[in-house]
């Protein structure tokens, strides 16, 4: 007999579990109807707290810019990674630092033109 729903976080799909399957789950992992609301409220909290997690009105370009800028900031902030890039590109560490800082200005090029309706 199938009676409860399990929400798969990886695929975002729901599937029914039989009573035998739910009895095998530990008590802390029993599917609860409020899990979906709890997950959404946690996501909203993270989106409000951290800029890089995005929000509902974030378009694809802005999301890509956030990813690129975070990556370049990490490269500049972690000296071993910066040294690795400088060796790989046969440039000085200072030049690589400068190049990454310049790339942070427009990491994905100019923004696309918006269609005003």
From TrEMBL:
InterPro entries: SF3b5/RDS3-10. One of its GO terms (cellular component) is U2 snRNP. It comes from the Eukaryota. It holds the Pfam family SF3b10. One of its GO terms (biological process) is mRNA splicing, via spliceosome. PANTHER family: SPLICING FACTOR 3B SUBUNIT 5. This is Splicing factor subunit. The lineage of its organism: Eukaryota, Viridiplantae, Streptophyta, Embryophyta, Tracheophyta.
